[in-house]
Specification:
This protein is α/β, with parallel strands linked by helices and about 280 residues long. It has helices spanning about 15-25, 45-55, 80-110, 125-130, 140-145, 160-170, 190-200, 215-225, 255-265, and strands spanning about 1-5, 30-35, 55-65, 70-75, 175-180, 205-210, 230-235, 265-270, 275. The strands form two sheets. It has a seven-stranded mixed beta sheet with strand order 1-2-3-4-5-6-7. A two-stranded antiparallel sheet has the order 8-9. The structure holds adenosine monophosphate (AMP), fe (iii) ion (2 copies) and zinc ion.
């Protein structure tokens, strides 16, 4: 089975890369993508663990961009690390500045918390801190009151348009895939899709824990005329996201072939390094 969307402690998941790989192996996954938000810091550890457990690692990331002023996530699979490092370092710094800004806003609103001490801070960490401070009963409430898009402590990502994000991924040799399009709040998918395709989008995450079977079927039909590939993943975050289990979508390994073809990945060398 295949799993193409997972987070670790390198961003807002709760398992380390090695723990994730072990859990994935136990859940029956044979090929696993690591897609932390705006970072590839987990790859090395995940690759070692994959070698140990006999899994194939699909190196990836989930890039935070904005479209029409709303958050839009782009998965990037198989970027050349050397060609994406500098770009990600800048995006990562922007993410840290944004988290500080949200913490400041919460202080102004009368809910002071400390800046979360994690490598790649995001809203889930801030929600957790609000919970631990006793301001809300659960993290979902923190999103509803302060952190959700349009709520008083929400701060959008520092400007990176989805088109520029897609172009940056392509320039690094990655295959860009629109993550969970049905969760996008800034326009309908039919209208946004051609704009992203024009910028170089190559795939759509058709299968996702928050897409209904009917929505996935709709997406599959929608991508056909553009010749885009379909990917899927659970968007596993460990205990940071309730109701999501590894391999819950039971996706077939056959989805991986077209993705590797686009990435020009022929084989792994003996050390597990991708040969392009
Ligand atoms: P960020 O990239 O920092 O804006 O955080 C986005 C992450 O927050 C997503 O990947 C989810 O893990 C989580 N998230 C977004 N919206 C909600 C929500 N309404 N309730 C709970 N978690 C959410
Ligand atoms: Fe997340
Ligand atoms: Fe996402
Ligand atoms: Zn994700």
């Amino acid at each position: 089975m295949l799993e193409l969307h997972c987070h670790t402690t390198c961003s807002d998941g709760t398992l380390t890369p090695s723990e994730l790989v072990r859990a994935a192996a136990r859940a029956g996954i044979r090929a696993l993508a690591l897609t932390d938000h705006d970072t590839i810091a987990g790859w090395d550890e995940a690759r070692d663990a994959c070698t140990q457990h006999g899994l194939e690692l699909v190196p990836g990331l989930e890039l935070s961009t904005s479209h029409n002023g709303f958050s839009l996530h782009i998965l990037g699979f198989y970027p050349d690390p050397k060609r994406i490092e500098a770009f990600l370092a800048e995006r990562h710094a922007a993410r840290v500045r944004r988290a500080r800004h949200m913490v400041e806003r919460l202080g102004e609103l009368g809910y002071p918390i400390a800046m979360p001490d994690v490598p790649t801070p995001g809203r889930p960490h801030i929600a957790k801190a609000l919970c631990e401070a006793g301001y809300v009963r659960h993290e979902q409430e923190a999103f509803e009151r302060w952190l959700g898009e349009g709520r008083p402590a929400y701060v959008p990502y520092e400007r990176l348009s989805s088109e520029d994000g897609i172009r940056a991924l392509r320039a690094s040799g990655a295959v860009p895939v629109w993550a969970h399009p049905m969760l996008f709040r800034g326009g309908n998918v039919e209208q946004v899709l051609p704009v992203l395709v024009e910028a170089g989008l190559q795939g759509v995450e058709v299968y996702h824990c928050e897409h209904s079977p009917r929505q996935s079927a709709r997406l599959l039909k929608m991508i056909e005329p553009y010749g885009l590939i379909a990917t899927g993943g659970s968007d596993f975050h460990g205990t940071n996201k309730d109701g999501v289990e590894l391999n819950m979508l039971r996706l077939p390994l056959t989805l991986l072939g077209p993705l590797k073809h686009l990435a020009n990945v022929d084989r792994m060398d003996t050390t597990g390094v991708l040969v392009k």
